[in-house]
Amino acid sequence: MSQMIFVSLPVKDLDTTKAFWKTLGYSFNEQFSDDRTASLVISDTIVAMLLTEPRFKEFTKRDIADPVTANEVLLGLSAESREKVDELVDAALAAGGSPALETQDHGFMYGRSFQDPDGHTWEIVWMDPKVVEAQ
Q1: Cα angle at 65 between 21 and 92, to 5 degrees?
Q2: Does the pLDDT of residue 133 top 90, yes or no?
């Protein structure tokens, strides 16, 4: 069995957050979702658990960072092409996300980023497979 990653993120409005990700073409595992949690399926091995803030607080004794004013994490996803980077980020911006950093174009690597409606920063990156294979 492949190792998986489950990233838990606090959200202010679960319905708004779910609508945002659905607009980008992602789905949810309803088996692990309820009125306080949405299990966002990013890939076969990556799941983002989107938790209302009260639900998130059940898993930690620490304060929840405000992602609008502080970075608690940077989330990076790979894309299969430069065009897919643009497609996903443009869709995120159209769906209510906001720009994060400037576009990074290093020739062999291309990336753009956005903030989701809760302020979490997502970086979408394409790397030339020939460069990756050479490493």
Answers
A1: 20
A2: no
Tokens encoding 70 = 């502080």
Q: Are strands 74-78 and 46-52 parallel, antiparallel or unpaired?
A: unpaired
Write the DSSP string, the chain.
----EEEEEEES-HHHHHHHHHHTT-EE-GGG--SSEEEEE-SSSEEEEEEEHHHHHTT-SSPPP-TTTS-S-EEEEE-SSHHHHHHHHHHHHHTT-EE-SPPEE-SSEEEEEEE-TT--EEEEEEE-HHHHHH-
d(CA 91, CA 125): 15
Query: pTM of the entire structure?
Result: 0.88
